[in-house]
Specification:
It is a single chain. This protein has 22 helices and 14 strands. It is an alpha/beta fold and 528 residues long. The chain has 3 domains: 112 residues, ATPase, nucleotide binding domain (Nucleotidyltransferase, domain 5), CATH 3.30.420.40; 196 residues, Nucleotidyltransferase, domain 5 (2-Layer Sandwich), CATH 3.30.420; 189 residues, Hypothetical protein af1432 (Orthogonal Bundle), CATH 1.10.3210.10. The termini are far apart.
Length: 528
């Protein structure tokens, strides 16, 4: 077991204030990363802050296994099972009744991840949950946003957030305080060394890292920042926090710290000019962190160049902080604070593909109105409402490619445009829902439909049926129908428009496209 390094900032969680009623006792978080498995047990102090009762770290080279060979070795599966068994005993010792166990970059990419998860659960009793990239982005983004609250205002600003991990780097773009987009790059501080081989000289390794990151930066600039370079540069991750600690000599306990451009260059010289073992000796840090400093500083240097920022802002948040915050929201039954960011990123994606904003807004509003009024008919979980909302926002983006068969183009664009907070499975549901917003109905010959899980095929049919009705209500594309009542019986659903309009066009279109609704819900839709 490895203890904290001398420069590692203490896990005080000082910025995480919670309601005392939400946390009846100690809780635990287990994090299986690319090079170690960590356990943290926390409880709430009298002043409402969280304090760490126990923090344990065991090295396990998942990254070395997965980034080179593609799977977790049998030896490390057994080692993980033993460690988690020990963690289970430790949690019982502290009286922990609630815990969350997650696995990140390396495990989610392992070809034998299902076998790994099943084995460790059977042996230890702990159910590891794989944290997919969009969910990891969501959690850390929210933790960063919380750290910024009341300290730095992002309104009227353009910002770049780099979340630098051992297996990947997540990029978030923020415009006027709204999340614009996110992207995951297969560049991680440990992955680079594992993939190129650790036998290379330090200089050669640094040169390769610089080449990789420079190409990645070019892609990010092309996709996100051609018109407006970021005003603010933010970076999160264990190696980023260590660079800030080295700069501050481990003395700061601030929620936000900063590194100037000049200081970052000096830190880059230190990280790239010293072998990892020398960094371990000089700063008393772990081997894995020492090895990650050079690629981390190179990544930061390259991204710094595309910004107008005069300093790098480093929030003192970790993946475990983010998971604990989410855990507390779940315990308290709080609404997901990321919903507005998911919607804003979908809206920005619509803008990217020149979608008619007024039409999509009208279709979205009417889709949600129908969803809410017909709850006793469709029985779709609340999460489905969000998926419908995003599908409605994006249903016409295929017209960017061509109006002909634009529903198919929309399906492709959505399925290949990861949205923060939306899992790959959910993204396929959204894409397929948009696919069927026109006249064609789901068929067994459609691969985008048949590759879905059976329950997702049912969900897509329901969501698409609602979306088709909402889109028909604005077929004239002049947003006449903005308010209506809904009445239904066992045979019909009646949409009663408020106001006096000629509804001939909408009625004809609804007659053509209401067939899916009738098939799915057993009721004909009528407009009056």
């Amino acid at each position: 077991m490895k203890r904290q390094s001398s420069l590692a900032s203490p896990e005080s969680h000082a910025h995480m204030k919670i309601n005392r009623a939400k946390l009846p006792g100690p809780i635990a978080v287990i994090d299986a990363g690319a090079h170690s498995i960590r356990l943290e047990i926390v409880q709430q102090s009298r002043d409402g802050e969280l304090e760490t009762l126990e923090s344990l770290t065991y090295p396990v080279p998942f990254g070395r296994d997965v980034f080179v060979k593609g799977s977790v070795s049998p030896e490390n599966i057994l080692l993980t099972s033993k460690i988690l068994t020990d963690f289970s005993a430790k949690m019982k010792e502290y009286g922990v009744t609630r815990h969350k166990a997650i696995a990140t970059s390396a495990i989610r990419e392992a070809t034998n991840r299902d076998l790994f998860l099943s084995t460790v659960k059977n042996v230890s009793g702990i159910d590891l949950e794989v944290l997919e990239a969009p969910e990891e982005i969501r959690l850390i983004y929210l933790a960063v946003k919380n750290a910024f609250s009341g300290r730095i205002n992002l309104e009227n600003k353009s910002a770049l957030l780099c979340i630098i991990g051992t297996g990947a780097t997540h990029i978030c773009t923020i415009l006027n305080g709204r999340l614009k987009s996110s992207e995951t790059l297969r560049i991680g501080t440990l992955r680079i060394y594992e993939e190129i081989g650790q036998s290379l000289s330090l200089k050669k390794s640094v040169d390769i890292v610089d080449t990789f990151t420079a190409r990645a930066v070019e892609t990010v600039v092309k996709h996100h920042f051609e018109d407006r370079p970021p005003d603010i540069f933010i970076a999160a991750g264990a190696s980023v926090r260590m660079l800030a600690n080295i700069e501050n000599k481990g003395m700061t306990e601030e929620v936000l710290s900063s590194i100037s451009r000049k200081k970052l260059k000096s830190l880059n010289d230190i990280a790239t000019g010293n072998a990892p073992e020398k960094l371990v000796e000089k700063y008393g840090i772990s081997d894995s962190i020492a090895q990650s400093l050079a690629p981390c500083s190179e990544i930061l240097e390259n991204f710094f160049e595309i910004t107008k920022a005069d300093k790098l802002i480093v929030p003192s948040v970790s993946t475990r902080d983010a998971i604990i915050e989410e855990f507390l929201r779940d315990i308290g039954g709080d609404a997901d604070p990321f919903v507005s960011d998911m919607i804003s990123s979908a809206e920005f994606l619509g803008e990217k593909y020149k979608s008619d904003r007024e039409h999509s807004n009208n279709v979205t509003a009417n889709s949600l109105r129908l969803f809410d009024e017909l709850k006793d008919i469709h029985w779709i979980p609340d999460r489905g409402r969000l998926l419908l909302q995003i599908a409605a926002i994006l249903h016409d983006i295929g017209q960017f490619v061509n109006n002909r068969q634009h529903h198919k183009h929309a399906c492709y664009l959505i399925a290949n445009s990861p949205l923060p907070g939306i899992t790959p499975r959910e993204l396929n549901v959204i894409a397929a829902t948009a696919r069927y917003h026109r006249r064609g109905k789901p068929k067994t010959s459609h691969p985008e439909y048949m590759t879905l899980l059976p329950e997702d095929r049912v969900l897509v049919s329901k969501l698409a049926a609602i979306l088709r009705v909402a889109d028909s209500l604005d077929h004239s594309n002049v947003q006449r129908i903005t308010s209506f009542d809904v009445e239904y019986d066992e045979s019909n659903v009646k949409i009663i428009v408020k106001g006096s309009y000629d509804l001939t066009i909408e009625q004809l279109e609804l007659k053509k496209r209401g067939d899916l609704f009738a098939d799915v819900f057993g009721r004909k839709v009528k407009l009056s």
